[in-house]
Design goal:
6 strands, six-stranded antiparallel beta sheet, 17 helices, elongated, alpha+beta
Length: 634
């Protein structure tokens, strides 16, 4: 039966206080990053404090689901890092409580946060997203003089198209202006050209005052009978008043019906069904149009085919035969007509493809945000099982190493999630694959760190990884032997000298007997297994002797000990321990050649190492004889 213990309450309190603090920190960081994206819509618009407050409020609500996983990662890492640094985690394990048992209160809290995140995204988040999008569009429509782009026509002003070649955001001046004004129809349009100008809102913010410099005005007047009056005016300065409500007004939310972010799962499901039905209907209509266009624009029906066969005078219809019977002029007309029809149909199909592609994009967007509600919620649990075990392994609290690790993990998650989203939105990847790739990568990481932390395994021992890769790549490892400050038992010099003499005899016999300087027999290497543990035995005896001699106070012997090489005891005999692996490597020729050459390299290295061992042994034996001349047994 599950019982709440004092340890659970203690750890939950530690985590809770850190979670609240880190959540607001993460929320602030995400809001600042998000704010830079929309900074242009805020600066210089003359927005009231009420509108700005709404903007930041909706922004904060939108970013809560993203801040929760990062806060859980950072707070859990700091919590168990503090417990490990203060040795409290060691005391917990010494009391017989496993790491997973110490996790259980936080697992319960994380699951509650995960469920709360899902509910928030499904109920509150859509409303916040819709309100934010509505507010953002309304802010963009305010003060259009700041929204006018360079080099393209701007149609945000009613009955007016405005082109600006260049604009100065500091002074508000617009250069190279071209204005098209329509009143009732295109026939009475006015064209205004000006070298420069300035646009300002009137005091009541219901009109725009446009001041133009050095330009011309071309305008068609109202037609009278068969003639159309025409007016041309040259001016050095002219002011025009345009109707435009520059005050802040919320946009109608009906224009945001395709915003998948602003919908719950039930709404997404219903809208996807409606969209599929609508675009299926459009597809069937396009198919019927294509059939009608084919038969009405020169496509052959069954009756036309029979008539063509009769005209050709053959039992089977051959288009080349019919074409060759035509005159040169009619051939030209047939080819030109066919090309024209094909180009027309191609343009028509490309236009229809734009419509269907837009429909596919909208449907994919709905699927993406439906899956995102689940993956973003699940990331809370995954980040906990990454952060808490890492804190128990690293055992460093505070805001130093935990912040660095949290940022690195979150960057990996963000890159994978954003890449998957972009690829899924463009239709390059399947939606389920693109939105689950980040979860698929984080899940093995969470399992690995949890397993290592629960078994007290070494994960971040850099020396261990360095040694492993150096052995894998065949790099030389150096021996480091240091003099001991306190020596309890002096080495048995006489016995060690006798052992070193015996080792010299054994390595000499081994080097000559196995002919290490020659290429090995590939048949014996890969297909005929002969056990060879002699070097392993010699190395064990040598290492024991070296370990005993490290207790010496003699500096000459200590220096000689560092000359001993670190011997690879197996790499010169065979690539693998198992026979079937060696046979498989031989069958795969490139792999077999690489392993064979690698084995020969290690044989030559061992040959040089044995010579070094013999010389070092002789030097140490000579030194021992100098230290104990009365015990010379040579």
């Amino acid at each position: 039966m599950f019982r709440i213990k004092k340890l659970d309450i203690f750890i939950a309190k530690q985590f809770g206080l850190l979670f609240v603090g880190t959540f607001f920190v993460c929320q602030f960081v995400l809001m600042m990053q998000f704010l830079w994206r929309y900074i242009d819509e805020l600066i210089g618009k003359g927005l009231s404090m009420e509108v700005l407050a709404q903007f930041f409020w909706y922004m904060s609500l939108m970013l809560i689901p993203q801040a929760l996983p990062l806060a859980i990662l950072l707070s859990s890492l700091i919590t168990f890092g503090n417990l490990g640094e203060s040795s409290e985690l060691t005391a917990i394990k010494a009391a017989g409580i496993s790491l997973m048992q110490s996790f259980r209160s936080l697992i319960f809290l994380t699951v509650c946060i995960m469920l709360g995140s899902f509910y928030f995204q499904n109920v509150i988040g859509p409303k916040a997203n819709m309100s934010f999008a509505q507010l953002l569009i309304s802010m963009k429509q305010k003060s259009p003089e700041l929204e006018i782009p360079e080099g393209i026509f701007y149609d945000g002003i009613p009955k007016t198209n405005l082109y600006v070649q260049k604009k100065d955001t500091k002074t508000g001046m617009l250069y190279g202006m071209m204005i098209y004004r329509m009143t009732d129809s295109f026939e009475d349009a006015a064209i205004i050209l000006a070298d420069s100008g300035m646009m300002q809102s009137t005091a009541e913010k219901k009109h725009l005052l446009l001041t133009l410099y050095s330009g011309e005005w071309f305008e068609n007047m109202q037609a009278t009978g068969l003639t159309v009056p025409y007016r041309r005016e040259t001016f050095s300065q002219k002011r025009i008043v345009l109707d435009f409500d520059a005050d802040f007004n919320l946009t109608d939310a009906a224009s945001l019906t395709n915003n998948a972010k602003g919908k719950s799962l039930a709404q997404i499901r219903n809208d996807v069904d409606s969209l599929n039905h609508d675009y299926d209907s459009i597809g069937r209509m396009f198919y019927q149009d294509a059939k009608r266009a084919f038969y009405s624009s020169g496509g052959l029906s069954k009756r036309d085919s029979l008539r063509a066969v009769k005209m050709a005078g053959t039992k089977t219809f051959n288009i080349d035969t019919v074409y060759n019977k035509l005159s040169a002029e009619k051939r030209q007309q047939a080819v030109s007509g066919a090309l024209s029809k094909i180009q027309s149909e191609k343009s028509n199909m490309e236009f229809k493809a734009l419509i269907t592609a837009e429909g596919d994009r909208v449907i994919r967007q709905h699927h993406i945000w439906a899956i995102d509600k689940f993956t973003l919620s699940l990331s809370c649990l995954l980040f906990f099982f990454i952060g808490a075990p890492l804190g128990a392994i690293i055992r460093k609290g505070g805001l130093g190493i935990p912040v660095i690790i949290s940022v690195l993990v979150f960057i990996i998650y963000y890159i994978l999630d954003n890449t998957g989203y972009q690829m899924a939105r463009r239709g390059i990847w399947a939606v389920w694959f693109g939105k689950s790739i980040s979860t698929a990568v984080l899940t093995p990481m969470a399992v690995f760190f949890t397993y290592k932390a629960n078994n007290d395994s070494v994960v971040f021992n850099l020396d261990l990884y360095r040694t492993f890769f150096m052995k894998l790549l065949g790099l030389r490892l150096k021996r480091h032997v240091y003099a001991k400050e306190v020596v309890i038992n002096d080495p048995d010099y006489i016995k060690n000298a006798e052992t070193l003499r015996k080792i010299n005899e054994e390595v000499t016999n081994y080097a000559h007997g196995h002919k290490l300087y020659r290429l090995p027999n590939p048949v014996k290497v890969f297909f005929i297994y002969e056990p060879d543990h002699e070097i392993e035995r010699i190395n064990e005896v040598m290492e024991a002797t070296i370990d005993d001699l490290t207790n010496t106070r003699d500096k000459v012997i200590m220096n000689e000990l560092n000359n001993y090489p670190v011997v690879s005891t197996k790499a010169h005999t065979r690539p693998f321990e198992h026979r079937w692996m060696n046979i498989t490597a031989a069958i795969i020729v490139p792999v077999g050649i690489f392993l064979y050459l690698r084995m020969w390299m290690f044989r030559l290295r061992l040959y040089r190492d044995l010579r070094t061992i013999k010389q070092t042994n002789a030097n140490i034996v000579n030194r021992i004889q100098q230290m104990f001349p009365n015990n010379d047994q040579s």
